[in-house]
């Protein structure tokens, strides 16, 4: 991994300082370092966003989980391993902390890492029997009502078998990676990243029996909307949205693309989980 592309969230505090330190360390070890023209870093070669040089072997993301999700979706088809460095507030995907930068670079240089493939899901929106939108997500697909207080009804099926009608604010279908995100806030379970599954979680359901359901990632989840008298949106990883209409059907399933995530030796999911979930707790 001697050719590295760095993507930087310049809105994060100390982003330029952290990126300069990382680039200096990588260059001193003989790496070729590239950055995006829209967020250039001094002493790197630059490339236009969306046109990653063909020799890139590793993508480094400096920011928070939101930055990582955005870059992951954009470059999923390249199959290039990604590593996130957390310069935000809370990161499950950007698991490397700034204080560990030098040690992380040393471990990359020494081959002390492994690649862990993270599943993505696709979503297809059907209207009048035709596909009008197709997208993919690393964390989750969310179908949720707009700002009005009225509930919506989501008729939900797994492999064409009726599961439930969720009456409430909507429904989330998440990957194991996304189980620590919006799905968790909605009361869903935490799923280890290597468990082949998807989680269906109702949002603020108007029913005491409505609970999250874990299904195989080989299944297809179908959500059909009834008549609508308000705005309903399909949201991708909390970052992109598609406006839905009454009687639209959304089919969600396992994408053919995965995100290869670099895992540094000495770090594991449960250590990171414990650190992140306890960060706001009192001693």
Automatic annotation (TrEMBL):
Q: Which SUPFAM superfamilies match?
A: NAD kinase/diacylglycerol kinase-like
Keywords assigned: ATP-binding, Cytoplasm, Kinase, NAD, NADP, Nucleotide-binding, Transferase
Q: Which cofactor(s) does the record list?
A: a divalent metal cation
Query: What EC number is given for this enzyme?
Result: 2.7.1.23
The record's subcellular locations are:
Cytoplasm
Catalysed reaction, written as an equation: NAD(+) + ATP = ADP + NADP(+) + H(+)
Quote one Gene Ontology molecular function term: ATP binding
Can you tell me which residues form the catalytic site?
65 (proton acceptor)
One Pfam family this sequence matches: NAD_kinase_C
- Protein family per UniProt: Belongs to the NAD kinase family.
Q: Known HAMAP family for this protein?
A: NAD_kinase
PANTHER family listed in its UniProt record: NAD KINASE (PTHR20275)
Q: What does this protein do?
A: Involved in the regulation of the intracellular balance of NAD and NADP, and is a key enzyme in the biosynthesis of NADP. Catalyzes specifically the phosphorylation on 2'-hydroxyl of the adenosine moiety of NAD to yield NADP.
Report the protein name in the record: NAD kinase
Give the organism the record lists. Answer: Proteinivorax tanatarense
